[in-house]
Amino acid sequence: MRAALVSGAMAMTALGLSGCASNDYPTSSVANANTTISSGYAVAAGDNLKVTVFDEPSLTGEFLIDSAGNLAMPLIEKVPVAGRNPNEVAGLISSQLKAGGYVLDPKVSVEVLAYRPVYVLGEVAQPGEYPYSPDLTFFQAIAKAGGFTPRANKTMVVLQRSAWSTPRTIKLTDEPLIIAPGDTVIIEESFL
């Protein structure tokens, strides 16, 4: 009986340790991760935009990008805007207003009012969802989540970015890691 208990405990320990082994995510550098967002902000589902159509107060307002990445406004069809920067979105809206004959020479501006949140999970004091602010760095995101726990791995991070098909492991360096709206930051446990 005792041998069975010891054997069972060893099997459970081995199973538990196998779950703690390092992940099999592809590795990326901080510089590579930062280049994916250096081309400017691309809007996506969940962003809240302020669209201003000059001299047309009935077309001006705040609009939420739906889960399919579309922007719905009065008078025009849904505009597919996901992956475009605010200037490109303004151009699409302008061309649709002009093509529909609603506004002869539309002047449109678009600004992001509320960005998608950032998720900080794992070995932090308060894992959860946090509001994004422009130029957010990795350490600022960790500070929002109350800092590292004593068990946190402070040299590597798992980052899931909407532009990536799979999460990536990033080895932290002196170069600041820039966090994008919608990113999920996962701090794993250190086993040193």
Automatic annotation (TrEMBL):
GO terms for molecular function: polysaccharide transmembrane transporter activity. Residues 38-112 form the Polysaccharide export protein N-terminal domain. Keywords: Signal. Residues 1-23 form the signal peptide. This is Uncharacterized protein. Residues 118-161 form the Soluble ligand binding domain. It comes from Croceicoccus marinus. It comes from the Bacteria. PANTHER family: POLYSACCHARIDE EXPORT PROTEIN GFCE-RELATED (PTHR33619). The keyword Signal applies.
